[in-house]
Amino acid sequence: MSKLSVISGKLSEDIAKRLSKKLKANLVKSEVRIFPDGESKITLSGNISKRKSIVVQSIYPPVDTNLVQALSLISKAKEVSSKVTAVIPYMGYARQDREFLPGEIVTMKVLGKLFKAAGASKIITVDIHSMVGLKHFNMKSKNVTAIPDLVKYFKKLSLKNPLIVSPDQGGKDRAKEFAKEFDSEYISLEKKRDRKTGKVQIKTKNTDKVADRDLILVDDMISTGESIIKATQFLKKQKCKRVYVACTHALLMNDAEKKIRKAGVTKIVCTNTIPSKTSIVDVSNTIAQAIM
What distance in Å separates the CA atoms of residue 122 and residue 142, rounded to the nearest whole number? Predict the structure, then answer.
């Protein structure tokens, strides 16, 4: 029996399969049956290593269902393995890492307790929305970035004098890192979001570098796509050329992909942390390096 096993959540089969090959590990697949009341019944096929297991499961919509499945897989792995590493390529609830308004529950603090209780001894995430969230996990943790993998893809494209753009000030460091890897300039837009309504407005004067250039809008995740749409519409008015989107996690809720393309985006390029039509960049090698 292999000294290492990779246990695949049903919705993270692609990354799990690639990881098992890179790590020369035994792949344990899961089959999931959803009952009419919404309960999940998971059945594993394959041999779990007694030494170490790696559970791979992204926590994306339906978030609560996939969270319970991830915890169940970890619990089962811990029954056999002495060490269990939880690889959560996309960590749901990462935006709920602090109390923004009085009375709000910090859900990431709850998740930290749940993962530990289930039996995880280490957690690995990819481009988590906020590093503050991982501080709530009382165990070894590591966040890896997909930026080098995304940059590698964009370097293969024929872009005209490309400029890296962050759709907001919060993603400034991400755009800066991307630009450094890509060997280009970057700017970050200023947006204002109403915390109660969620409505976004862009207010920025830093647009003198935009005209007649191809742009790469860089973000960690796209949910409804509102920030990307607003940014694209704003940048198009500044006479830019093509607009591309580079993103780690493609949630793309409520026809977001269609709306983003309608706003004028040439191509949406995301990683396989969440499977979708736009998930064309593989991050399994980056995750494997974090495990080794």
Answer: 8
Q: Mean per-residue pLDDT for 4-25?
A: 96
User: What are the backbone angles phi and psi of residue 93, rounded to the nearest 5°?
Assistant: 70, 5
Is residue 275 within 8 A of residue 14, CB to CB? The reply is: yes
**Is-cis flag, bond preceding 62, omega within 30?**
yes
Rounded to 5 degrees, what angle do the CA atoms 191, 195, 199 make?
55
DSSP 42: E
pLDDT (0 to 100) of residue 170: 86
**85 within 8 A of 114, measured Cβ to Cβ:** no
Look up residue 153 and give its amino acid. Y
Q: Which two tokens stand for residue 205?
A: 């004067």
Cα–Cα distance, 146 to 183 (Å, whole number):
17
Within a 13 Å sphere around the CA of 131, how many CA atoms are in the beta-carbon half? 8
- For residue 262, which phi and psi values (nearest 5 degrees)? -65, -30
Report the C-alpha gap between 285 and 212 in whole angstroms: 36
What domains can you pick out in the chain, each with its CATH number?
A: 4-145+283-291 (3.40.50.2020), 147-272 (3.40.50.2020)
CA 288 to chain centre: 16
Among 143, 123, 134, 5, CA closest to 70: 123
Question: How much of the chain exceeds pLDDT 90, in percent?
Answer: 87
pLDDT above 80 (res 48): yes
Provide the CA 136 distance to its chain's centre, in angstroms: 18
> Which amino acids are annotated catalytic?
191
